[in-house]
Amino acid sequence: MNRSLKPIAIPTLTDEVVYQIESLILGGTVKPGQKLPPEREIAAQLGVSRPVVHAGILRLEQKGLVRIEPRHGCYVNDYRTSGSAELLTSLWRHKGEELEPAIVESMLEFRVAVEQEAAARAAERVAAGDASLHDKLGALLDAAENADRLDPGRLAALDYQFHFSIALASGNLVYPMLMNTFKSIYLTLLERFFSSPEVVDRVNRFRRDLLEAISRGSAEDARRLMRTLSEVSSYE
Description:
Number of helices: 12
Distance between the termini: 46 Å
Strand order of the largest sheet: 1-2
Number of domains: 2
Strand content: under 5%
CATH class of the largest domain: Mainly Alpha
Helix content: 55-70%
Radius of gyration: 21 Å
Shape: elongated
Largest sheet: 2 strands, antiparallel
Low-confidence stretches: none
Structural class: mainly alpha
Order of helices and strands: HHHEEHHHHHHHHH
CATH superfamily of the largest domain: GntR ligand-binding domain-like
Mean pLDDT: 85
CATH architecture of the largest domain: Up-down Bundle
């Protein structure tokens, strides 16, 4: 038992400083080029020491979110050109409503692009003789169609699992990891979408069509239907 357990990581004050400033930047409250307040002011607002704030600023610099100009201060970078892989992976900590709309839109576009190819590759594998996907996806759709329409959390979880299963079935090792990276944000947006019960039938119908295309091994139809499903499942 001891070998399977790991110490629980408790967020530090520096982690909280990073998270709060990061949220202001990614949420669009603080714009690229804008100068951050002096560290002593930030420390006073957050109720922490100046060294804690300084450590947080250094971590934000490593992520590419800010740049420190000696004797001038700390400025917000344009994360599109300076953001690092560390910044990308940190996005999962932020809920959709905490992010600038352009970031959320870009993430959804990215998901659609990945899922179209995942659906096509899954269909190709079925055409090559792998018929195991149909039953698994069918069971998920059965569960989704029988789920309580007034339980958006459950509907969101089933929808995510449906798309994640397609990503796994694609055979691409990176697709499911990319989906997992943004899972918390996707679930937040999906739950918002499924808070309107009237959308459920429409989504279920398109998912059935997608499953049928994958099951008969039609990569082009699967790609087209996944794109259509993404448009139907708008998170607005």
